[in-house]
Write a structure and sequence with these properties.
- The complex is a heterodimer.
- Chain A is an alpha/beta fold.
- Chain A has helices spanning 5-17, 24-33, 38-58, 64-81, 108-119, 133-142, 159-170, 186-192, 201-211, and strands at residues 94-100, 122-126, 147-151, 176-180, 196-197.
- Chain A has a 5-stranded parallel sheet with strand order 2-1-3-4-5, with helices on both faces.
- The termini of chain A are far apart.
- By secondary structure, chain B is of the alpha/beta class.
- Chain B has a single domain (4-72, 132-370), classed as TIM Barrel (Alpha-Beta Barrel), CATH 3.20.20.
- Helix content of chain B is 46%, strand content 15%.
- Chain B has helices at 4-14, 30-36, 41-45, 49-63, 123-129, 134-139, 144-153, 166-174, 176-185, 187-211, 230-250, 267-271, 291-298, 318-333, 352-365, and strands at 24-25, 67-71, 82-86, 90-95, 102-106, 158-164, 215-220, 255-259, 277-280, 303-308, 338-342.
- In chain B, a hairpin with a 6-residue loop joins strand 4 and strand 5 (102-106).
- Chain B is globular.
- Classes of the chains: A alpha/beta, B alpha/beta.
- The interface between A and B is medium-sized, with 24 and 27 residues.
Chain lengths: 216, 371
């Protein structure tokens, strides 16, 4: 029996919220076959589910494992939907160059943010770990990045974020700068001069969504 | 302080007796110890077991804290089985046979081991192969560092061996993404891998004990409620923590459970592991570790390690460090069952005089007669 559009979108939301990684592909396929556009399936189905998961994570009702699993479920759904998204549709939210700063090889937090950004419609250029400031700069210029996001795990490396931020300002690259990582707090972020600070992955992504593709 | 009091005070605290002064047990691994000995970390990691033991002993001789942490070392002939490629600022160490198990070694930084180096399909087989019995471990020389440290300083300081905890190892080896997926999709695989890991760690601990380890420091790194839910903690991590701690205690050695991440929502369960002592990370990642609340939960039935902030506090000044130590000891450190530790390993950016300041302050404010 054919489901209504709302029922299809609800099924997609539920699949994300219940981390149903095995079923989301067939659910997305069924939605397409029953006339739901890929754009609606992403924006009003899966993304709404991710928003629910993000809110529950921030309320302490869900945990990092669930956040990761929801992101993976989203990616499974996108395997079906992405080729149906038309270029003109407004799924694209902007571009983000992301990396762990020079001297620091921690990547768990950075990878989670990168994954959630992709699930939120951003084009993500992940430079990996131990990234010197000039690589951030070069990539941001090359792709006209909307946002440069930096992660650090060590108190000894987070000051390297300042170099990236200063060089971006000097070069008049009009991109937002976002920082995150265990040694940071609101005070240390002020001293860095970053535009934003995500105290966790979800907050970081929410900040990026607010900025979107608005040029700084 | 007389050196023979160092170990006695540590044993007293772990046995819930009042030490002469609050013992100090900082997390000193090869990163900081190499700096104290004037060597690069990579030189020590690639060096002999004698060199590894020597740098741990030099750091101890420099500061005279109350314990020496030791680590299982690679087999004596491990470099025969790997290729070491110079990548400029770091080395890449690759297993010649398997090819895939690589770690990166920054020339002046700590090794970066691969996360997610096993697949869901091959994890059990690989874990099984990694189980060696105690005698094999001894024959391979994997406890040489422990033996050397014990022989040279075991009469003065408590030689404490670091071992992993099954759940953390499983998540690390699968990687967080695969691990998180398996918690929901393949819970039996997680349990099976934890069982295999438990067997491995018990054999390793048995060997370390025979080599001279006098206590165990069990590291549970991925079980905090910032990472997994309290339900998952109870279902997957706690069970194996309990079994591991019981097995290690049967070796006749005290066990310290070091718990990373947020312990607060599961602190009553953590206490139920009945470790002899508990240690926690410093406050970071928006986590507020309430040591006073934890002490109340432990209710005098286990020793508590103070979690001096190795990242932010130990990099400040000796005066600031003294004040923080004073506050911590006055709040929770008097009347026994307390050891002043650090929430994470001391980094090479910490100045030795700051470590001295921590130790001096503990002995100043933590003396039995100081109140």
């Amino acid at each position: 029996m054919t489901k209504s559009k709302e029922a299809n979108l609800e099924a997609l939301r539920d699949a994300i919220v219940t981390f149903d990684i095995d079923s989301i592909g067939p659910i997305a396929q069924q939605a397409l076959e029953e006339g739901v556009s890929a754009y609606e399936a992403v924006m009003n189905g899966m993304t709404r589910g991710m928003e629910t998961v993000g809110a529950r994570f921030q309320d302490g009702k869900l945990f990092l494992a669930e956040l990761i699993l929801a992101g993976e479920t989203f990616k499974e759904g996108m395997k079906v939907l992405s080729s149906h998204l038309k270029n003109s549709e407004a799924w694209y939210r902007g571009s983000v160059v992301i990396g762990t700063v020079e001297g620091d090889l921690h990547d768990i937090g950075k990878n989670i943010v990168a994954s959630l950004l992709q699930a939120s419609g951003f084009e993500v250029y992940d430079l990996g770990v131990d990234v010197p400031f000039d690589r951030f700069m070069a990539k941001a210029k090359e792709v006209s990045a909307d946002i440069v996001a930096m992660s650090a795990m060590l108190s000894t490396t987070f000051p390297n974020m300042r170099t990236v931020i200063e060089e971006i300002a000097k070069a008049q690259v009009h991109t937002w700068t976002l920082v995150g990582g265990a040694p940071l707090n609101a005070d240390s972020v002020k001293s860095l001069g970053a535009d934003g600070y995500g105290k966790d992955a979800v907050e970081g992504v929410n900040i990026c969504k607010r900025w979107g593709s608005k040029r700084k | 302080m007389l050196k023979n009091h160092l170990k006695d005070d540590m044993i007293a605290a772990l046995n819930l007796r009042e030490p002469e002064s609050v013992p100090v047990a900082p997390y000193v691994d090869y990163a900081y110890a190499s700096k104290v000995s004037g060597r690069k970390v990579s030189e020590v990691i690639l060096g002999s077991n004698e060199l590894k033991a020597s740098v741990l002993l030099q750091a101890y001789e420099k500061h005279h804290y109350n314990w020496i942490m030791v680590f299982e070392n690679p087999p004596r002939d491990w470099q025969r089985n790997v290729s070491i490629n110079d990548l400029g600022d770091k080395y890449e160490v690759r297993n010649k046979d398997a090819g895939e198990k690589t770690f990166l070694l920054p020339k002046d930084g700590t090794p970066i081991y691969p996360v997610g180096d096993v697949t869901i399909e091959n994890a059990a087989e690989k874990f099984e192969l990694e189980i060696a019995d105690r005698d094999d471990i001894m024959r391979q020389g994997r406890c040489d560092v422990t033996k050397i440290v014990k022989a040279r300083a075991g009469s003065e300081a408590l030689v404490t061996a670091v071992v992993g905890a099954p759940f953390g190892e499983v998540l690390l080896r699968l990687g967080l993404t695969k691990g998180a997926t398996c918690l929901y999709r393949k819970p039996d695989l997680i349990r099976n891998l934890c069982e295999l890991c438990l067997r491995r760690y018990i054999e390793e601990a048995s060997a370390l004990s025979e080599a001279g380890a006098e206590a165990f420091w069990v590291e549970e790194v991925f079980a905090g409620t910032d990472t997994i839910s309290p339900t998952h903690y109870e279902e997957f991590a706690l069970r194996y923590e309990k079994l591991q701690i019981q097995a290690l205690q049967r070796l006749g050695k005290p066990v310290i459970l070091y718990f990373c991440g947020n312990p607060m929502p599961v602190i009553h369960n953590i206490a139920m592991t009945h470790a002899d002592a508990f240690a926690f990370e410093e406050n970071k990642k928006q986590i507020d570790v309430d040591l006073k609340g934890i002490k109340d939960v432990l209710n005098g039935e286990a020793c508590l390690f103070g979690n001096m902030d190795a990242i932010n506090t130990l990099t400040t000044s000796p005066d600031e460090i003294e004040e923080k130590v004073k506050q911590m000891i006055l709040k929770i450190g008097l009347r026994g069952s307390f050891v002043l530790g650090t929430g994470s390993p001391i980094t090479k950016t910490v100045q030795p005089e700051n470590v001295d300041a921590m130790i001096t302050a503990a002995r100043k404010y933590g003396r039995t007669n100081s109140t």
